[in-house]
Amino acid sequence: MNATTEESVIDDFREAFTRFAATVSVITYYDAEGGPSGMTATSMCSLSLEPLSLLVCVNRENRSHSELIEAGSFGVTMLAAGQQQIADLCSRPGGTKRLPREWLVGTGTASTPVLRGSVAHIDCTLDQVHDAHSHSIFIGNVSAVLLGEPREPLLYCNRAYRRFDEDVGDEAMQRVWDRVAFGALS
After folding, report:
1. For the whole model, what pTM was predicted?
2. Confidence bin at 64 (pLDDT 50/70/90)
3. Residue 98 carries which DSSP code?
4. Quick check: 171 pLDDT over 70?
5. C-alpha angle 113/137/30, rounded to 5°?
6. What is the DSSP letter of 119?
7. Which of 42, 92, 121, 186 has the smallest set of CB atoms within 10 Å of its CB?
8. CB 28, CB 115: distance < 8 Å
9. What is the pLDDT of residue 184?
């Protein structure tokens, strides 16, 4: 494969994944100074029910990479529609990822920062880290799940934040949440 073809395949690969709609999540943790911090991620998925676990992919060049390893635990907060400001703050390269206290809610059950108004928060202890090319796969064992109000999630697709189609109403959202609650979507 020549360089031009390879560049074309890379460009097409990137373009293909811009078309993949995903819920925007913020990986939360306490940094070395004990401050609540986060990084925006869409590369996250459930892994296993036994043990209850999920995985998150993090670029090894990202400052959050070493901070997550040092923290030993992380949370996955699934953002709700309208929480773009949080996603933007946590996705800025080189910028502060410190979460303002007014964005957080105290729970007493989570060991990681929980963002107010989110769809859900999953608290994890870091179990394994596997290097794969430019990223590492962080496997977290789930220690707590906090469900927010059944709200529309913040989606990202085609390089922009998106919402469900206008025709999706509260009744349809409740059916989705009912399926999630009974494990039909896991």
Report:
1. 0.82
2. very high
3. B
4. no
5. 20
6. S
7. 186
8. yes
9. 47
- How is the beta sheet containing 22-23 ordered, strand by strand? 22-23, 155-157, 160-162
- CB atoms inside a 10 Å sphere around CB 173: 15
Residue 135's φ and ψ, nearest 5 degrees, are -120, 170
Section 175-183 average pLDDT: 57
3-181 has CATH 3.40.50.10740 classification: no
Using a pLDDT cut of 70, give the percent of the chain over it. Answer: 85
Where do the domains of the chain lie?
3-181
Please tell me which residue, 139 or 9, carries the higher pLDDT value. 139
Contact 76, 115 (CB under 8 A): no
Query: Distance (Å, rounded) from C-alpha 177 to C-alpha 147?
Result: 10
**Residue 147 structure tokens:** 């469900």
Residue listed under structure tokens 């080189």: 94
Dist CA 167 CA 158 (whole Å): 20
36 prior amide bond cis, ω within 30: no
Q: Which amino acid is at 134?
A: S
**Which pair of tokens denotes residue 39?**
């990084």
